[in-house]
Amino acid sequence: MANLDNIALLAKLDGILLVDKPAGISSHDVVKTVKHHFNLVKVGHGGTLDPNATGLLILLIGAGTRLSDSLTGCDKEYTGVVRLGTVTDTQDKDGHVLEENAYAHITQEQVEDALKEFKGDIFQLPPMFSAIKMHGEALYRIARVGEEVERKERLVHVYRIGIRDFSLPFFKLDVFCTKGTYIRTIAHDLGKALGCGASLEELRRTRSGKFTVADAIPFMDLLKLDAVDFSHRVIPMSQVGQL
After folding, report:
1. Claim to verify: residue 60 and residue 120 sit in the same structural domain
2. Catalytic option among 5, 20, 29, 50
């Protein structure tokens, strides 16, 4: 297909694209890369992932950017790996270690019992290392200069939470929750409840609303597509509401 035909084809695209984001790249960089690589006019997202988180990232193409609020507000499902005994300033493995505590005495039954307090309506104190803005500035920018500001707790809802593959100091955590729920904060607060501290080692988003990562294309595979194959991966606006 001639280059002009490719440009015309891509210019007509309106809808959403399901991408499996790898670790080590921000959601915004995925958006920028796809926009530049395929010469698209408008590209957005339906909810970010932390740079080292993997999984479902919904890209919004053309008129699909109008769906931003509805897709960002969808319920989410995650699978994470929690590390007991280690507390960090970011609540995950990427931060500076603040504490190293004994964890060998913690049993799976104790963790499962503590998790009962994290189901249903819960209040979370947003971490300082987050994109939440206060007085027009993202909290993580304030945190990077060594400052901490007072934050308000936020109400979120956890529909389902459970653990598996328990092998100290790690276990897998499965969570189905509302938007705005910080899984690393659940890990951090769970560690507090157990008295040994904890942090999030890995995080993968497996579902957002009715869309699953099983239907997503890996980011690096996406960049190998030509214009025609790329267009076939975009779910048209007319179909989004029917899925």
Report:
1. no
2. 50
| Nearest by Cα to 72 from 64, 84, 81 | 64
Element containing residue 164 per DSSP (H, E):
strand 154-167
Residue 3 predicted with pLDDT over 90: no
In tens, the pLDDT along 175-190 reads 999 998 999 999 999 9
Range of the domain at 61: 3-73+209-240
Strand pairing category for 86-88 and 76-84? unpaired
Q: Give residues with Cβ within 8 angstroms of 173, minimum separation 6.
A: 78, 79, 80, 81, 82, 161, 162, 163, 183, 186, 187
- Our answer to whether residue 14 is catalytic in this structure is no
Q: Which pLDDT band, with edges at 50, 70 and 90, does 81 fall under?
A: very high
- CATH code, domain carrying 221: 3.30.70
pLDDT per position as a tens digit, 208-218: 999 999 999 99
Sign of CA dihedral 126, 131, 134, 138: positive
Q: Residues 47, 50, 55, CA angle at the centre, nearest 5°?
A: 70
* 145 vs 64, higher pLDDT: 64
Q: Provide the 10 A C-beta neighbour count for residue 194.
A: 21
Residue pair 61/43 in contact (Cβ under 8 Å)? The answer is yes
Query: Span 61-79, mean pLDDT?
Result: 94
